[in-house]
Specification:
Fumarase C, Chain B, domain 1; mainly alpha; Fumarase C, Chain A, domain 2; 454 residues
Length: 454
């Protein structure tokens, strides 16, 4: 059976392939080969320009350009050749080394090809490749989609900054807010995590079989290998980790995944809240001609975009939970259990990407039903008891809270009940008039300002 989006096992490459195509240049098998090739070539170039590596002469600018073109122009045909070599070696990184040696065999400097993969263990190449894949995919794809989602959400928050709404704590009526303020809360939370993702510095190592530069020191004892390794890693745009075994311990990588798990939790919180507002008729969703909401109930317009986002975010969290539990642990100086786990990084990010695009679609459909917001507020006059008991306290009248509790707790009170009580209070006329003028739909504090100030 041919592989396509209808025959793929994973929905990431099947049903949702059109939403995840941007990640293929970063997380496919082809992409991993290309990144490994890039690290191998850059290490070779770096060594050639180091004066202490006397047996490898400096490459010319033209030779460097020619060498870099191997990974820049890496093709599907090239990747198939790598797989053919791997079928023989049964080692994916060694296959990259042999492929690169094939590619340079006609180059002027081919007699120095043994400096390809020089003093490296496979994990030197792998850890840098994965860090670059994650760093560049985050910058070019995921962070961009987070920003698009934030822009849509912020636009809604500003638009509805003045639209008063009944709050609900424990599912029960509470002090009013505005729809814009509630959406602003999510804008702020998501923006905070986005900043942490953007500022996070991924780490790398390039220090040999067990992290001690054993082979390096034997070959070139006068070279400052710690400094060379750090400069090379920094040149790639990564942060140097000086203390490792054969593997970079992944503590830093797990921290990066935790950012995305927290992002997923906030996005799930947003999805569920909007789902709830739709069920309360606070929001309706614009219709698209020809779409069906239910196979049996013709009237249905379901909040499917927010449900889809929630489902994909939960899957992503599960993947990153598994990675976080496994990647920080490796027997002694290294075991291979992380190798298969880490290949699923792209799947975790793909489900976040699907969720972000679903959220963007869902947010674009929302239409506020102000009528239902105001009806709920007008039917919940009891929420003004907070304001009244606060004014009573302000005037140093004992038992203000208890007075309002006796009037309202577990009871359905009316505006008349409220006004009778206010008129009976021995408080200054200004305070009394403030309370008599107060309505559920105007008792929103600084909600509107907070939303506008975002």
């Amino acid at each position: 059976m041919l592989l396509n989006n209808l025959t793929a096992i994973s929905p990431v490459d099947g049903r949702y392939s059109s939403k995840t195509v941007e990640l293929r240049p970063f997380f496919s098998e082809f992409a991993l080969m290309k990144y490994r090739l890039r690290v191998e070539i850059e290490w070779f170039i770096f060594l050639s320009l180091e004066k202490n590596i006397k047996d490898l002469p400096p490459l010319s600018k033209n030779e460097i350009k020619k060498l870099r073109s191997i990974y820049e122009n890496f093709s599907l045909k090239d990747s198939k050749r790598v797989k053919t070599i791997e079928n023989k070696t049964n080692h994916d990184v060694k296959a990259i080394e042999y492929f690169l040696k094939e590619q340079v065999k006609d180059f002027k400097f081919s007699k120095y090809s043994e400096f390809i993969h020089f003093a490296c263990t496979s994990e030197d190449i792998n850890n840098l490749s994965y860090s670059l894949m994650i760093k560049e995919s985050s910058k070019q794809v995921l962070t961009k989609e987070i920003k698009i989602t934030l822009k849509e959400l912020k636009k809604l928050a500003k638009k509805h900054s003045k639209d008063a709404m009944l709050s609900r704590t424990h599912g029960q009526p509470a002090s009013p807010t505005t729809m814009g303020k509630e959406l602003s809360n999510f804008v702020y939370r998501i923006d905070q995590i986005k900043d942490q993702i953007e500022k996070h510095k991924l780490k790398g190592k390039m220090n040999g079989a067990v992290g001690n530069f054993n082979a390096h020191k034997v070959a070139y004892p006068k070279a400052n290998w710690e400094s060379l390794s750090k400069r090379f890693i920094n040149k790639l745009g990564l942060e140097y980790n000086p203390y490792t075994t054969q593997i970079e311990p992944k503590d830093n990588l797990v921290e990066f995944f935790h950012h995305h798990q927290r992002l997923s939790n906030v996005l799930i919180d947003l999805s569920r809240d909007i789902w709830g507002y739709i069920s309360l008729n606070y929001f309706s969703q614009s219709l698209k001609e020809g779409e069906v909401g239910s196979s049996t109930m013709p009237h249905k317009v379901n909040p499917i975009d927010f449900e889809n986002a929630e489902g994909n975010l939960n899957i992503s969290k599960g993947i990153f939970n598994s990675l976080n539990d496994s990647l920080q642990i490796s027997r002694w100086q290294r075991d291979l259990s992380d190798s298969t786990s880490i290949r699923n990084i792209g799947v975790g990010f793909a489900h976040i990407l699907i969720a972000l695009k679903s959220l963007q679609k869902g947010l674009g459909k929302l239409q506020l039903n102000k009528k239902f917001l105001l009806e709920d507020l007008d039917n919940s006059i009891e929420i003004l008891t907070e304001a009244i008991q606060t004014i009573i306290r302000k005037n140093n009248i004992p038992n203000g809270y208890e007075i309002m509790k006796d009037l309202s707790r577990g009871k359905k009170i009316t505006e008349e009940d409220i006004n009778v009580l206010i008129n009976s209070l021995k408080i200054p006329s200004d305070d009394k008039n403030t309370l008599l003028d107060l309505k559920s739909r105007t008792y929103t504090g600084l909600a509107s300002k907070l939303s506008r100030d975002l």
